[in-house]
Write a structure and sequence with these properties.
about 450 residues, about 25% helix, six-stranded mixed sheet, alpha/beta, globular
């Protein structure tokens, strides 16, 4: 980990339904590839060791023995790898079957995390075979190791402060109270989701928003690994939609492919954001089980895109939208209430836009005087402009050094006794014909804030 970044990945192996030996080979091959790329935390799909679409085969001893043997093969083949991986498989315990994530590290099973929420609607029939996660404190022998079975467990990294991993499975994220909430409050900064979410029209966008929204709500990194095309059957289609998000931002995603989806999560920044946000609940006294692990410190090579201008959107349409919004907010948030008032003191239609123009003129022209607005004057809708009830407001002083800030069509100065909005004398030129004193806009006509403000006029009117 370098400068707080940890390399994570969501992986989708090529699998065959109910072929545990073949699937185990594909899984440890993908884990080795992840290690070569410097990945330190890897999530693989739900039930990827057997296949999610095995149906009633989940109840067969042959499949369950094959899953346990396949996991033992993976442990032996990856005991030298410097990474933490979560692999999906069915696990039986006390005559019950659980949809689990096996968290592996250097040939050991750190814990088995069962799925909490089992979908039993639409195309899902998981309650037909599986039992939801129950109370923890279950220790039993699995693959020749004493293993903890429970969903209330987090995995802090002793050698990388700030890195703590939590695990949930597919539907857990879609529920009203996801287990990841308690895990994040207990200190988890990276959440792994092992999923087998089938594809429907429009579902990918909803899934993307769900993952990014959860990462924002929990101020965490979220690694979502989905099942691929090997799971597709006559009534379900899977496309390996893998997502990595951080604090509401989509770092990387991939669809219609197998393999690794890699990015880096800034855990130091996540720690900082949690300290800064006073509403983020930290529940260090919770009854969550802690299972530590260690990774060798290494240099993290960044593959994620870093915007050199973090406050300026790179997408042109988004940038234009933000600029329009800035102008709108600036116009609506001017200080002092109504800057231009009629004889009754009330605001008249169209004056919000004029106040925005006056505000812009204040910044572009410097200070002056006039009805409490530096460099300003009454709005076109003010009775003083129409001559009803008041004299036109004039700016004291000599001739204004700049006639126009909008190439002859924007907001004019009101120096030399001219009213706000009144065209300059002599067409913007001096009496001697020179035009050197005419102000040039540093923006093009299309980018002039006046133009944008005028375009927003219908929205600005009360």
């Amino acid at each position: 980990m370098r400068d707080g970044f940890i390399k994570v990945a969501a992986g989708t192996p090529q699998i065959r339904v109910a072929d545990c030996r073949y699937n185990a080979e594909q899984i440890f091959t993908l884990m080795r590839e992840a290690d070569k790329q410097g990945v330190r935390v890897l999530a693989l799909p739900e039930l990827c060791l057997t296949g999610y679409t095995c149906g009633d085969l989940f109840l067969q001893d042959t499949l369950l023995r094959g899953a346990e043997e396949g996991l033992a093969t993976i442990l032996e083949a990856t005991k030298h790898l410097e990474l933490l991986a979560a692999v999906g498989l069915p696990v039986r315990h006390q005559n019950k079957l659980y949809n689990c994530a096996a968290v592996l590290h250097r040939g050991e099973i750190l814990a088995l995390v069962p799925k909490t929420y089992l979908p039993n609607y639409g195309e899902f029939y998981e309650k037909r075979w599986f039992e939801p996660a129950g109370p923890g404190d279950r220790l039993f022998s699995f693959c020749g190791q004493e293993v903890y079975l429970g969903s209330d467990v987090i995995f802090p990294c002793e050698s990388m402060p700030g890195l703590t991993v939590g695990v949930e499975i597919c539907e857990d994220l879609w529920a009203s109270t996801p287990p990841s909430v308690a895990l994040a409050e207990a200190g988890a900064t990276v959440i792994l989701n092992l999923s087998a979410s089938d594809e429907l029209v429009g579902k990918a966008e909803y899934r993307r928003r769900l993952v990014c929204g959860q990462s924002a709500r929990l101020v965490c990194g979220y690694v979502y690994a989905n099942a691929g095309e090997g799971e597709s059957t006559t009534d379900l289609v899977f496309n390996g939609h893998n997502i990595v998000a951080e604090n509401g931002a989509l770092l990387v995603e991939r669809r219609f492919a197998t393999g690794l989806t890699v990015s880096e999560v800034d855990v130091e920044r996540l720690d900082y954001e949690r300290r800064r946000l006073t509403t983020f609940r930290s529940n260090a006294d919770s009854r969550v089980i802690t299972v530590p692990f260690a990774l060798e410190p290494c240099t993290t090579t960044l593959t994620r895109h870093v915007n050199p201008l973090p406050f300026v959107p790179e997408d042109g349409a988004e940038c234009s939208e933000h600029c329009d919004e800035i102008i709108l907010l600036a116009a609506l948030g001017l200080p002092g209430g109504c800057l231009c008032r009629g004889p009754g003191g009330g605001r008249e239609p169209g004056q919000v836009l004029d106040r925005g123009q006056q505000r812009h003129g204040r910044h572009r022209r410097g200070s002056g005087s006039g009805d409490g607005v530096p460099g300003g004057g009454p709005s076109p809708g003010d009775p003083r402009r129409r001559g009803a009830g008041a004299e036109p407001l004039r700016r004291p002083g000599g001739e204004c050094p700049h006639y126009s800030g909008g190439r002859g069509k924007g907001l004019y100065e009101c120096g030399g006794g001219r009213r706000l909005g009144e065209p300059p004398p002599h067409g913007g030129a001096r009496p001697d014909g020179s035009r050197s004193h005419r102000r040039r806009s540093h923006r093009g006509a299309a980018g002039c804030p006046f133009r944008q403000l005028r375009r927003l006029a219908p929205e600005l009117r009360p």
